[in-house]
Amino acid sequence: MTDIDKALLDPTSVFKTPEDVLKAHDLTREQKIEILRRWEYDARELQVADDESMTGGSNNLLQRVLESLSALGYVPDPDKEPPTMQG
Question: Which of 1, 33, 69, 87 is surrounded by the most beta carbons within 10 Å?
Answer without folding.
Answer: 69
